[in-house]
Amino acid sequence: NPPLVIEETALSVEIGGEAFRLPALVVKEAGAGRRLPVALVTHGQAADEEGRGRVEPRAFLRTARDFARRGWLAVVVVRRGFGRAEGDK
Q1: Sign, Cα dihedral of 23, 25, 26, 30
Q2: Which of 20, 39, 72, 73 could serve as a FRET partner for 60 with CA atoms 20 to 30 Å apart?
Q3: What b/e sequence results for 41-70 when a residue is b if at least 16 CB atoms lie within 10 Å of its CB, and e otherwise?
């Protein structure tokens, strides 16, 4: 398997006219072309406030790696109100 490029980052997004930064993880095969199909990966709903605070992109690294090895640009994003993402749920 070719090596993977794994980048921890944050996405700057606008939702309802407000700007937010959402933690993200981007994974692709090293040397992959610039134009790849995108697999957007996100989480489900947490059962409680404590669970919402623990959500992080790296929890989905295995899934992102699987997509990247199949030729996708995998982007894991934490939605607002979860983990270290800005904004309310």
Answers
A1: positive
A2: 20
A3: bebeebeeeeebeebbbeebbeebbebbee
Tokens 């996708």 sit on residue: 72
How long is the chain? 89
Contact 48, 82 (CB under 8 A): no
Q: Does this model's pTM top 0.90?
A: no
Tell me: the pLDDT tens digits for 14-70? 989 999 999 999 999 998 877 999 999 999 887 787 888 888 999 999 999 999 999
Fill in the amino acid letter for 77. Answer: V
